[in-house]
Amino acid sequence: MSLFFAIALLFAFYLFLIGEFLLPTGGLLGFGAAVALISMLVIAFSHSVMAGAVMSAIVLVSTPLLVTGLVKVWPHTPIGRRILNRRPGQAAPMAPQRTTTGGTKLDDLVGRIGVAKSPLLPSGRVVIGSDKIDASSTGMPIDAGSPVVVVRVLAGRVQVRLATEDDLAAQDPTPKSPLSLEQSLDALDFD
């Protein structure tokens, strides 16, 4: 008769565990599941060592499968939808982050050159065009007034490095005289 109680407590454990995932109980059902599990193991082992070992094996195999299934089902439940504040399958929209002064998207700043307005040890303030931005250095400290180039935007944070002569030459805004059609065809190597 005591083995019947162990089996009933095993089902109670599963019910409490499912309830903990699906209802906002603040951990009360989880505590009940733990009590049911411990009580079930005590009763099963007091009946026989074999019964306790079998019940332990059942719990060790089935509980991870149940929890995995519950994690996959949870966003589709009413509580999961309310907590996540979205429909199942809907990705959380990420609005592009913009600079505070110019309204430029941060991702559009990659590759642009600016000037460090404060020492970047590793973070500080840089000016790129008309945008004043908080940024961090990717390596060595950068002195105020030094030219910097935006390397990447990571988690909404602009990362810069010291601009090299090649970076400055590539960003040189001086207009070059346009080539005539004959000069541009002569520049092409058709051989």
Automatic annotation (TrEMBL):
Keywords: Membrane, Transmembrane, Transmembrane helix
Cellular-component GO terms for this entry: membrane
UniProt membrane topology term: Multi-pass membrane protein
Coiled-coil regions, chain positions: none
Major localization class: membrane
Classification via PANTHER family: INNER MEMBRANE PROTEIN YBBJ, NODULATION COMPETITIVENESS PROTEIN NFED
Protein name: NfeD-like C-terminal domain-containing protein
